[in-house]
Write a structure and sequence with these properties.
Distance between the termini: 44 Å
Number of helices: 12
Mean pLDDT: 84
Order of helices and strands: HHHHHHHHHEEHEEHEH
Shape: globular
Structural class: mainly alpha
Number of domains: 2
Length: 240
């Protein structure tokens, strides 16, 4: 029963492991190559993601919510669309590095449409990619592909914003008076539990809040700052 429970809790990983086992049985050579490729990408993630988390945390501290609302919020309109294209196009690293930043931006008021544009631009029209594309496939090919891709991204972002609402994105859950934790955004890094073990614990690779009569604000602030995806927040007004 314990094994079945663990499989259900880690269904995706279990499916991946099963796929590798089948591959090793059916085609051992392909299985070995797949493991090597997976190892390469895991190593890449371990090297890149800590830097991304640090940069995201710094941006969260330095860029006020009012700025995000003004330049990337729903009311930003054309200005927000252009800035989103710029942010996505000049960013470095693989597209999965954009997810923590987009979580932070949405939390601070960036619209879903602009987040889609940032992610899409990051994936398919980054400046280094365009330069290499022009070098190997020609300037005309690159320019035409860029124009058509931008048009498609704009249409796709508009449709996504019509279908997906802010409340559909994993949001904060009130766990205690004034204290919110976004368990869907939580990556189970355990930093909050290490910063404030009396208040936070990890269950099923997600942070939980233990009942407390009083909060140690110094420890709580350290835990909030330590969270790489900014899944923890505290509102004094709500607490009162």
């Amino acid at each position: 029963m314990i094994i079945i429970k663990k499989i259900k809790e880690n269904l995706f990983l279990s499916i991946v492991a099963l796929a590798y086992i089948i591959m090793f049985i059916a085609k051992p050579a392909m299985g070995i190559e797949s493991v090597k490729s997976s190892g390469y990408y895991i190593k890449e993630m371990l090297m890149i993601m800590p830097v991304i988390f640090i940069l995201t945390a710094l941006l969260d501290m330095w860029v006020p919510k009012e700025k995000i609302l003004r330049y990337l919020g729903k009311e930003a309109k054309t200005k927000g669309i252009l800035l989103s294209f710029v942010v996505g196009s000049i960013s470095a690293g693989p597209v999965y590095a954009a997810f923590p930043m987009c979580v932070m931006l949405h939390k601070k008021g960036a619209s879903i449409r602009n987040i889609v544009i940032i992610l899409s631009s990051w994936a398919v029209i980054k400046v280094p990619m365009l330069l290499n594309e022009a070098k190997f496939l020609g300037l005309k090919f690159m320019a035409l592909r860029w124009v058509l891709t931008v048009i498609v991204i704009i249409i796709f972002s508009w449709l996504t914003a019509k279908i997906i609402k802010d409340q559909d994105i994993p949001g904060e859950v009130l766990t205690q008076a004034g204290l919110h934790i976004n368990r869907d955004a939580c990556m189970g890094c355990t930093l909050c539990a290490k910063s404030y073990p009396e208040l936070f614990e990890i269950e099923n690779k997600r942070a939980l809040v233990k009942p407390q009569e009083a909060l140690d604000m110094d420890k709580l602030e350290n835990a909030i700052r330590a969270c790489p995806v900014k899944a923890i927040s505290y509102n004094e007004n709500t607490a009162m």
